[in-house]
Amino acid sequence: MEGALTARDRVGIQDFVLLDSYTSESAFLDNLRKRFHENLIYTYIGTLLVSVNPYKELGIYTKKQMDIYMGVNFFELPPHIYALSDNAYRTMLMENNNHVILISGESGAGKTESSKKILQFYAVSCPRTSLLDNVRDRLLLSNPVLEAFGNAKTLKNDNSSRFGKYMDIQFDFQGEAVGGHILSYLLEKSRVVHQNHGERNFHIFYQLVEGAEDGLLRWLGLERNCQLYRYLVQGQCAKVSSISDKTDWRTVRKALSVIEISEADTEHLFGVIASVLHLGNIRFEADARGYATLNSSTEMHWLSKLLGVHVQVLREGLTHRKIEARAEEVLSPLTAEHAIYARDALAKAIYGRTFAWLVNKTNESLANKVRLSSDYTVIGLLDIYGFEVFHVNSFEQFCINYCNEKLQQLFIQLTLKSEQEEYEAEGIEWEAVPFFNNKIICDLVEEKHRGIISVLDEECLRPGEASDLTFLEKLEEKLGGHPHFVTHKLADQKTRKTLERGDFRLLHYAGEVTYCVVGKEHSSWQSKNSIVKHCFPSIEPDSKKRPETVATQFKSSLAGLTEILMSKEPWYVRCLKPNNSKQSGCFDDVLVRHQVKYLGLMEHLRVRRAGFAYRRRFEVFLQRYKALCPDTWPHWKGKPADGVQRLVIHLGYRPDEYKMGRTKIFIRHPRTLFATEDAFEMCKHKLGESTKIEACWRGMQARKERERRTWAVKVIKRFIKGFMNRNQPVCVDNAEYLTFVRQNYLIRLKENLPKNLLDKNTWLTPPPIMQEASRILHQLYVRLLVRKYVRGLSILFPECNSHHLSQLQLKSLTSALFKGKKESYPQSVSKPFVATRISKEPFGKTVLGPTFYSVLVVKYDRNGFRPRQRQLVLTQAAAYLVEEAKIKQRVEYGSLKGVSVSHLSDNFLIIHVSCDDIKQKVGGFVTARNFLIVKLSCLLFCSTEKTYLMSLSTVIRFDIHPGKEGFVDFRSGQETMVYRAKNGHLMVVSVPYCNSATINAFGGVHRPSRHIQYYNANMFTIPMSTH
Residues that bind ATP, according to the entry (predicted)? Predict the structure, then answer.
């Protein structure tokens, strides 16, 4: 911090404690404004951090920034929330005690973001293991879930927390985060049923309607239109440009799974949320006697389904109330107005209990499953609403401001206690500090039998007709003479003009607030509606005990929170918003002054400045200012306290300006420190020797850097010149560059050589100068791969040499026949040949002798083109067509005239035969089925005479018998078909491999052929596949 004192005129003071005019609000605001306009949003008041929302990204929350603030003294670097987080963490580890960070401020001031930054800092800075990473994920992702169910858009903030949250982060003795626990306070349930203009309901309702899957919406009986639901449109801003409900829905779904909420519980949770929307659409009409009747049958159906309550029970609960008289229960019908209130009360109760259930489920996920509770310490995060004053202040504002009164009381007590303990530890005499004690206001609200909450309880639960005005009259009766309580009746003539008859005014520590009692009684009335008992039977047991009101429940929970905070070491973050329009760079003095007052910042500053403005450990103070005294420069060899004493005497400090503690020096006035800092700045320029040494060192480093850069410039110039002349013959200008090109190409080639002979596309493209060398190297490398492959066959598989040789011969023959000519060829390259494609033992092996190849085929007749199932068996002597155990046709290889196939992806093979047998009269036949390529390769391989491939076209002619010809036409289509065309030709339609869903034995999905009608002449088909 001290290093920035010299810039104080431009950017202000980093610690308000150092302000000379510490009692002046104007000086406080001026310092805050200076820093804000320099994008310095953080300022200290001692260890309290003041944060101003910049409404823009500043780039100060990066991983690099986190590393800078880890393990650094609190005042060593500029103020930052990471500094406060790190010091709380390190103090917890060193002292093995519990700490709490209290974050407060108005809606929109950045409280929620501050708590997120603290969690993110701990997620990065704490030790990491896989188990602890899971804990971190749950801690971080608990935020989006609770924000979805507990945050809403308000006039001041698009993501305003509508509940108070206290989170404990649990650490083990090594500083590892092992668990957490969350407490929630005063959820604003009235928002479920009513929103002011320009505001929205809780985020989860809009996320569910806009982002949920269609199937889930159908199951919940919802439609993707927020305008259809009464509880979502009262604020008339269901759509907000800064909020993406669909994206947030996905985040919430992921977060729910991470915090281990099961799918079944998730469905039930969304069912409850949907039931609230259906409940809001239920309408009541008055009958002839004025009693409420229900006409929303559709909504009742969905409500019954989602809540698991019978329709009749729902109908009775919404239109009647139960009155207990001695041992009897009587159902009394409700008017339409009371039925609407009962409906809204039920919606609030359902949502409130659901939120409490969600918090409990989150706590189960965050629970420490590693060690016992005695083995860990905690850092608490309290994200609580700030003091609120609106044009109309209702019951929620009363509770919120009461909470702030209690926290302010605790805040002053803990600050005074901390100051007093430090003074006592250092042996400095403690001086009494005057401050406003707001205990009188807290008692006004919470005192038994006389406080506002007690009066509210009595009025809500007393027999007879209680109303808002009777409650106000009771307050006037019991609190009439209180100096901090005013009503229209009790006020003087001047004050009475500012109060309505249904208002009362409290004089809080932060100023006057006027509350309206209209509707207040309903906010705390405990519903006895039967449907609430039916929905929550285990939570609402039958009991004669008087139920607690909401205000009493809040008072009790606040007392519990106070006990938690009193048991921990506090750290404070006070959040301010600079303007109401959410504009960056705009500083509204009136608004900020209002917040400074309501947050009690001036009160806190007065407490911190009541004694000494500045305190530092002896070692730190001496290290910084030792150059100001000849006795302590350059090294002080005695005790630090003695060195500091010698230093301050030399500087001329008066006895009333400082005190020497046991480990620290205390300086009373900021001007004393500023004078010391200014003297230090002047002294630095007079330290000639150190300056000369520094100058010599810097000069030597600069000369080395200049030499290095000069060498680099020469190299770059030569490289550029060589690049420009790279296509010229080798000369002085490009010789070095071309050498680099050769070396670079050879190095890259070495790292990217092909792995096998079939890999022909990975040989690097050479530069022009290496074209010939690359060609020669490629040839040599191919020969090397061939040699390795052949040697590998003989060494690794000596018993399989003949088999591999035949495989290579067949592959070579197949490549010569089909490469670049047949669409289906590429799919066959990687598949090895096998001797048979028939699952059972082929007929040819037992009757015809040794077979070379056998496969199932379909032969097409010459008359009618009818298909015949056959086996094709290739032996060394001839080819046979076999039906079961009977030889149907024998073709000598010598009688083969040739074979024909199309260039498409079909499986048809036309074999041309010269026949001397007059009876047979066959000049050719056609086959179809799988394995066309292997079959044809084997046939040509087995033929001892010159058998050749006659045609690779889309129209193939063959001889049916002497003097008569047949034709087969081929074409591509969307579906495989074989049929006889109108011109008498056999039409074969095949699906190209590039867009086909019919990929046979090469893998893929089969699409069955559409057999419109099969016609055959002496032919058989082989559906194409692998060998």
Answer: 105-112
